[in-house]
Amino acid sequence: MTSTSRVAVVSFSSLLLLAACASAGHGGKPPAVAHQADERIPPISAFPPGEERIAYSDALTNEQAGWRLEQDGKLEQAKQPLEAAARGYLAFAQKYPKTGWDLTFRFHAADLLRRAGKADEAAALAEQVANDPRANPKTKAMAALQVANALTVAGKIEPLKIEPPVEGAPPPAPTEPAPAWQRFVTANDAYLQTLPPGAQEPPDRILGPGQIALVAARVQYATGHIDDARTRLATILDRWSNEPQAFQGAAPLYVQTFLATGDRDGATRAVDRVKQLAAQQAQQATDPEARNTYQKVAAENDKMGVAIRYQQAKALLDQGNAEQAAKEFEALAEQGVGDVPAALVGAAVAWDKAGNAQRATELRRQIVDKYPDSKVAPGAALQLAAASSKRGDHVEAARIYAQHAQRWPDDPNHCTALRNGAVELDVAKKGADAAQRYLAFGKDAHCVEASPDVAVLALHRSGTLFLQAKRKGDAREAFQAAAAVEGVKSAEAKQRVADAKKQAQKLGGTAAGRRSPPR
Length: 519
Prior knowledge:
With about 525 residues, the protein is mainly alpha-helical. It is built from 23 helices and two strands. Among the domains are: about 5-155; about 165-175 and about 190-195 and about 205-305, Alpha Horseshoe (Serine Threonine Protein Phosphatase 5, Tetratricopeptide repeat); about 450-519, no CATH class.
């Protein structure tokens, strides 16, 4: 499922910078229109040679230096050139007000100031852009977003978080967003209402309508307005699924809105919808990076779909419909996506409850054989061994316990497997083999530390069985080990220690666990 995340701070500078670094320009007269916040800053050649171009070049050079430092992870060092770039753009806009780029530059400078650690100043500057009468609805929305981002960085408002839904928990209670976020949502809605259905903006804009709408949806989700967030996300999928980044953010959150309200069936339908759209957009995409984004969304969506179906199967099992649950779990495993071993375990448990122990055993054996490195494999092996013991096949049970002890020595049930294997061979009248297993258990330092009493009983039994098999040397070793165990508490264990000392001495050993020296 989607992990906890903050509502992302949208940074525009790297996008704007790409166009400014282009070598081709379009010289001539300055534009007669007011350029907006979503436009990329122009190439150097957009301004006439001389002081105007030099001033712009200085600001651009500082920004490039700051950007490179950011890319190298040197965020503190990047602040000085980023602030210098912001001051340069603002000075340019003030000295050359008729270029038509002042809105763009002031918005861009606000983003740079936020990254330079001047969040309060960034918020004030973005506020000016939002209130400028020349700002179009999109610029007003982007500036309002910049204000909210800057106030969040400044610590003036709490960061918004996207929390993954907790299974079985009620949906979060709605709360009012901070005024800055509410203002952004309102500005976003006003902007989107100006776009006719099917309208597409120029592809060179730094932020598409889908991306802006996504932030508004995340604000609504983070403040508990799940239904409104779902409606907004559905609109993004319907109208702007051709925006790869918007689609990548909207698709999983759209599914999550159903899970947050406990609607698993709705979530399943949402997964199918996202799957269809992702395939369609991947096929239509001409840009390799965009195609890869859609394919990545499809893969993550498949995993989410499996997780939802797993919970649906689990719900069937909890409701007493064990056979149907088992079939659902098996279908998930056959799909081969997500945690296949976990699905097989679910199917095995369900078949057990449905009375089909044979099928449950087959599935657990599949887990052990095909997915030995999975976290559920050791438990499946123990279940297999227990099932073999229950039907009277103690030799097979001992074999599986031995397999567990060998394959997963670090498993918490390692000592249980060692001892149970010995017991199964003992019951099967395989005395010498049982004695060897009891000895291995009793000499395992971890097992002895965990339960000294049980270790003594096992070692004494090992010595007894070895004596019956006329293997006196091995018997002596077992009794000596039993006699050396410290920390026993029960009366039975203490009695076995005392007897082990006598037996060891009779066989030519010592109570200290060493054989007596020859005379």
